[in-house]
Structures are given as C-alpha cells and as structure tokens.
Amino acid sequence: QAVDALRQLYLEFPRLYNDSVVCSFMPDVVYKMRQADTNVVTALTHRPWHLSHFGDGTPRFNSSWKLYLYMMMDVILDWSIHSFLWRLCGVSAFLIQKNFVSQEYVRHWSSKGIQVVAWTVNTFAEKSYYESVLESSYITDSLVEDCDPHY
Hints:
Shape: globular
Strand order of the largest sheet: 1-2-3-4-5
Order of helices and strands: HHEHEHEHEHE
Largest sheet: 5 strands, parallel
Number of helices: 6
Structural class: alpha/beta
Number of strands: 5
Oligomer: single chain
Distance between the termini: 27 Å
C-alpha cells in the first residue's frame, strides 16, 4: 500500500523527483519502490539492534528466548544490508543512526557511490563534526540550536 500511495504522489507532484527521498527501515518497501519507479531516489534506514532494542538500548522483549531470537535477526539484517541488500534495493543513500557513523564508514560507502546520512544530529558539536570532519550529511530536529536527544 505504501508503494502505491508514494507512486501516486510522484505522479501528482513530479517535482518530488528532485526534492525527495523514499527511505524505510524495511528493505522490501525500498525495493518495491525502485521496482515501481526507477527514477525515485531511495535510501535504506538502519539502526543496529533496532529489531531487539529500543533506541535508548532498552530490550524490546522481557522473554529471553524472544530477545535472543530478535538479536539473531538483527545480526542477519545488519549483514544483509551491508552485504547485498543495498545493491539489490538500488539505494543512493544510507540513513544510519548517528552513534554508528565513523570516518571509515563514510569512506567505505562513498567508494561505492552511496551517501551516508546520519540521524538525528542535534547538538552544535555533532553538527560541526559531521560537516567538517566527516563531510557527511545529517538529519536534525533543529537548524538553529541544540535540542534534546531523539532516539
């Protein structure tokens, strides 16, 4: 349903081809969007351990077996995204949680023609680091001032 709705939006508002990116934590959405319209810019969104843990590190499940099952799925998903899903989905960028971005990570993906975009970069120090050291794009909740962390 999401892909059909997005495709309709691109038909109604053609300027979106130059002004937008379709991104998702779900590789199948990104893949289907690229299949539906190869002119749409797409990105995979990723945060390691997002299936098994919330953004603040708290486990999603109280049950040990369920938590470990989802942790195994996290490992497989992380490996898949970094090994072949990025190419299969035809992405132009990775949106990755800021705590997992490094100079080596940016260099690695830049060499493959993939833009790394960190989220959510909210402090002046973080913004300066991403701009001057990593020379990488970022998503923020505030353009002017520091704001509270967002997971």
